[in-house]
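Progress against Task 2.4 (sequence-to-structure conversion) is shown through the following example record, which the project officer requested during the mid-term review.
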Amino acid sequence: MSLRSRLTRRAQVTLIGVAAGGVAAAIAVVPSFADSDSSAPVTVAAQKETGYGPEPEADSKLVTQAGELSTMATATLSRDTMINRARTWLTANNGGPVPYSMERTWKDGYRQDCSGYVSMALGLGKPGLNTVGLADSRNGVTTRLSSMSQLKKGDLLIDYSTTDGDFRHVVIFEKWANTSHSAYWAYEQRGTYGTTHRQLKYGIGSDNYDPFRPVNLGDGGGGGQLPSPGVSWPILQNGSKGADVRSAQQLLTARGYTVEADGVFGPKTRSAVIQFQKSRSLAADGVIGPNTWSKLIQTVRYGSSGQAVKAAQTQLNVYGYGLAVDGAFGSKTKSAVVAFQKNHQLQADGIIGPQTWRALLGTR
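Structure tokens generated for the chain above:
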């Protein structure tokens, strides 16, 4: 297959190859897949998206060798544990993301590119496999899934083809972004930006991404159509967008902070988060993670009203319940809550407490 036809299959990614000392360098520009709703999270940055290949080859000193596979972690990881490991790189660089590099290793010993990042999250041997190594069944690290519908939290989307100028990549699936499964949230190590958490569409439609399941992941933690109630809270920070951000803004407003619920995590939202964190003796980093969520949410039930109810209605609508976001917890909202709780194996009492909040925010 020609390079031109390969690029067509890859959503017309633009490649610029530069030969330098026999090593090919690549820069990619990926088009935006943003939803028509401007408040929805951007799936892929529209401009200045740098490439994620080529990567070190299997015989590189920066890649865990086949003879060293016995050093890889064999203990079963829960899906939540894997995702929590992936999250550490979002703030590991003095509160910022770990920088991207195919030639350097981070303080933990793992290579700072996409496959090194995934190797770290899975607890594989340092400095980590490359993308081809992660997908190669002979290494016993992953098994290929038959369809995208089988994806669960912690599974991988891998482009491991070597026929297009070593243009390869791997991302960690977290959860579906909507009920139609037209996009998903993922953790990714990418050029220029380093570690990111954003919506993607790799593997949906015609491209070279295939779904894989790490063999050392247990079944706990969910992330598919009926996720476990033990799901993880989302991580929101400056630049995040979408329904989760809007709900956080509504909850901040319910706590007395003046924040527009526009679904965009900008400087004003970050400032409000920092103020809230200080008021609750939390680490004032401006990032909404598990500790901040647990303090930010409010239990709401039939008869409740206000911004916290609006936040709950916003989340319920992500799952297709079609509620008016009016801040009034009436019979329709209660019916939607009970249906959601039944679908997610929660106590169906119609009350939105910590477990239901976590499921509303942490699953798709």
